[in-house]
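Q: Here's a chain of 219 amino acids. Please give me its 3D structure as tokens.
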Amino acid sequence: MKYFVTLTLGLLLVTSIAFSQISGSPHDLSSFSGTGNNYYSTNQDQICIFCHTPHFASTTQTPLWNRTNSAGPFDTYWSTTIDAYTQANTPEVSGVSKLCLSCHDGVTALNSLLYNGSMGAPTMANNDSLITGTADLDDGANGLTNDHPVSFAYADAITGGDGELVASASLPAWALDETGKVQCSSCHDVHKYGSDTAHQPFLNYSKQGSALCLQCHVK
């Protein structure tokens, strides 16, 4: 019983910390966020429901995912300096990056949820249900070709042997997903906006002096 109580309190603490870091940030789409956020609901006061639900969640996405899948496919970045893949074999967006695009593809509505809860379908202020501007990553004809490549195996990039990447064993834990791939989460933590401008928006590490880039790149 003591172990159960300790574990429960620990989970509640982690949940509380995550909630406090999202509340009031651009990822807070609830009606509580108010006009300080460009996108917010007029009738849904739950913060987490725009991504997660404890009931009726997706059976193909985790954890407890509450969003409809982004349609795709996506045209991703390639250049002659990339060793991880060829132009004819660019990887399809997968994993957590595809979850990000269920908001940031500029096509899937922010209020397109699998389960709306007791409040009903969220209505968005000013009818702003689609992300536009710099947060729309799949921007028109360019797709993701003007964004950092994602969903490729870091080990494949290392194989090129040009010495411009940090060894996999020396990378921080957040740099790669569980399959060893670079994803949106390699730079961003969706649950932590950042306490100062050097860590915003939602960055895993300070961008001051390109410190975030230098976690993987040797320059």
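Q: Can you summarize the key feature?
A: The longest strand covers residues 152-153.
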